Amino acid sequence: QKSMTKKTVILTNHSLRYYAGSELTTFELAREFLRRDWDVYVACFELSPAIKDLFKPLEISWINLGEEQFPLTNCNVDLVWGHHFTTFDRLFAHHRIQSEKSVFVSLSPFEPLESPPIYANNLSAIGANSIENFNTLTQQGFPSERIFLFENSVSEDYFSLQPRKKSDSPCSIAVISNHVPNEIRELKGNNEQISIDFYGFEYQSVLITKEILSQYDL
Predict the structure, then answer these.
(1) What pTM value is reported for the model?
(2) Sign for the pseudo-dihedral over CA of 157, 178, 108, 42
(3) Residues 78, 98: contact at Cβ < 8 Å?
């Protein structure tokens, strides 16, 4: 049930399966709203055990958008903040959720699910994660004054790494990407003097922490 004293936010993402961009953005948003003492619900169509474990310490509430039963039926929440138009369709059109404010944030200028819903101009605001995405949305006809730039970010603790002396020729490199270019893959096989570790879908799929980053020169 919604708290009588705290504000309530529903964060949405089409699926929460991998350590990928929209999943981690949703995770950071959940942490920030909890830090501000909000009640947090996270809504998605698909949830993997790994990502559920990632969120577990936050003690948020889950909403399975694939189920007919909805925990907040006839409840007026303070904010819906989400990604992927499918989640907004499910909440507003199917479950008829009522929200004081509604913010859709597009995390990509080329992924179909990142396109704003057709009723986006009736939402409180539209966000874009980059200036390129901002420009794409304006080209699609959305008024620039209704779009705010909400750039990719990480939490402050990532900037608390102790400075270390950097070598002109780094010997240990971390490549963090779910889409590693071929020329980077080839670099690993062509240079025996450099240790290169890959993190992503095809390699080590883990949450990147400052402890992991501290192991590398670059």
Answers:
(1) 0.84
(2) negative
(3) no
Report residue 47 as tokens: 């949830």
**pLDDT digit string (tens) for 113-161?**
999 999 999 999 999 999 999 999 999 999 999 999 988 777 777 777 6
Buried b / exposed e over 131-145, threshold 16 CB at 10 Å, is eebbebbeeeebeee
Q: Which residues contact 203 (CB under 8 A, 6 or more apart)?
A: 197
Instruction: Please state, for a pLDDT cut of 90, what percent of the chain lies above it.
Output: 54
Name the helix (H) or strand (E) containing 41: strand 39-44
Beta partners for residue 12, in sequence order: 43, 82
Total number of residues shown for the chain: 218
Q: Which residue, 26, 54, 2, 48, is CA-closest to 209? A: 54
Look up residue 107 and give its amino acid: L
Give the C-alpha separation, 16 to 14, whole Å: 7
- The radius of gyration of the chain from alpha carbons, rounded to an integer in Å, stands at 20
